């Protein structure tokens, strides 16, 4: 999703190839990403680019005449990269831990970790947005994309467990940001509806537990 | 306006030395502050409250944490001796390898060296896979960055220097000229570069630390 949002922001036409990796991985995917064998992979003029945040930076640099995705100031860029790395390395694993947790205690621990992370991200939003609508300012930027792609999954958890991970008390700014992000033209059609995503999540969870 | 650059690091940490190498390559003057992991300074905790780790770069009072984020910041701020290619595709490839090194190789190599008897074989296999992949990427280039040292080489100093020290102490033979001739040659060339050499910790400091660790694990 991150790559598609970036391409949409830059108004780049692209062909989307859905991988049905619950079943098997396509030849092209395996050839384009032999090391990790994962999506997403962007193929531009026969050159494959792997790793979602690397793809987003690539898109930003190649289609430089479109709206900028990363901020222009090096320190702001570093801040965006720092928080994106935090999301991928620390926060997202707690979400995975929740999906894999089979006992109540483990689920509670994962939720607590996610909530702690969201409070940090709420604070980061205050600093990065500088009073504007998105982490990136007036428009969606790198950190919005890095974090926003998980909103669908967040909503699945909220619905399934009846908890409000984004809420008025602890994360009021993120709560409002989430709506703005989801309704942005570059994003709108990409976030799957909660029930479809929940169903996909169950199949994925079953497959991954079976593979362990 | 005088620029204020400070680096909070730990002597012997590969992450810390990466930053020193990059700063020195670009001719940036900085003040180095040695941290004690058992007794972290209030400044470190203030500048990196999220992870509470080194390295942290402070530039004109603004802190940046996470070594690869710092390297990209250094590249964008000081333009002498670029460590990333100019072409966006080449840059994407460099970023991919830096991430692969940190996320997969480093951990696998470290685990292989310290693995308990039962897990050793599997850990060694995994680590060897990583090194084989690196060997394949290097091919006929002198450095990952081409003719000159680049960001990937800087990140990979763990393999070129730290790994060779650890494997000597624990008796693992992961990176050898027989198994990975290209990677082995690269490691010698890299460690032989003046700026790299001057900014690596003394090898006996590393081997002493690793020996102490080995003893205490027995």
TrEMBL record, chain A:
Gene3D superfamilies: 1.20.1050.10, Glutaredoxin. Its main location: cytoplasm. It comes from Rubroshorea leprosula. It is found in: Cytoplasm, Cytosol. CDD domains: GST_C_Tau, GST_N_Tau. It comes from the Eukaryota. The keyword Protein biosynthesis does not apply. Pfam families: GST_C, GST_N. Residues 1-67 form the GST N-terminal domain. Its EC number is 2.5.1.18. GO terms for molecular function: glutathione transferase activity. Belongs to the GST superfamily. Tau family. Keywords: Detoxification, Transferase. One of its GO terms (cellular component) is cytosol. GO terms for biological process: glutathione metabolic process; toxin catabolic process. It is an enzyme of class 2 (transferase). Residues 73-200 form the GST C-terminal domain. This is glutathione transferase. The keyword Transferase applies. It catalyses: RX + glutathione = an S-substituted glutathione + a halide anion + H(+). InterPro entries: Glutathione-S-Trfase_C-like, Glutathione-S-Trfase_C_sf, Glutathione_S-Trfase, Glutathione_S-Trfase_N, GST_C, GST_C_Tau, Omega/Tau-like, Thioredoxin-like_sf.
From TrEMBL, chain B:
Residues 87-216 form the GST C-terminal domain. The keyword Transferase applies. It comes from the Eukaryota. GO terms for molecular function: glutathione transferase activity. Residues 3-82 form the GST N-terminal domain. It is found in: Cytoplasm, Cytosol. Coiled coil: none annotated. It holds the Pfam family GST_C. It catalyses: RX + glutathione = an S-substituted glutathione + a halide anion + H(+). The keyword Lyase does not apply. Its EC number is 2.5.1.18. It is an enzyme of class 2 (transferase). PROSITE patterns: GST_CTER, GST_NTER. Keywords: Detoxification, Transferase. InterPro entries: Glutathione-S-Trfase_C-like, Glutathione-S-Trfase_C_sf, Glutathione_S-Trfase, Glutathione_S-Trfase_N, GST_C, GST_C_Tau, Omega/Tau-like, Thioredoxin-like_sf. GO terms for cellular component: cytosol. GO terms for biological process: glutathione metabolic process; toxin catabolic process. Belongs to the GST superfamily. Tau family. PANTHER family: GLUTATHIONE S-TRANSFERASE U8 (PTHR11260:SF676), GLUTATHIONE S-TRANSFERASE, GST, SUPERFAMILY, GST DOMAIN CONTAINING (PTHR11260). This is glutathione transferase. It comes from Rubroshorea leprosula.
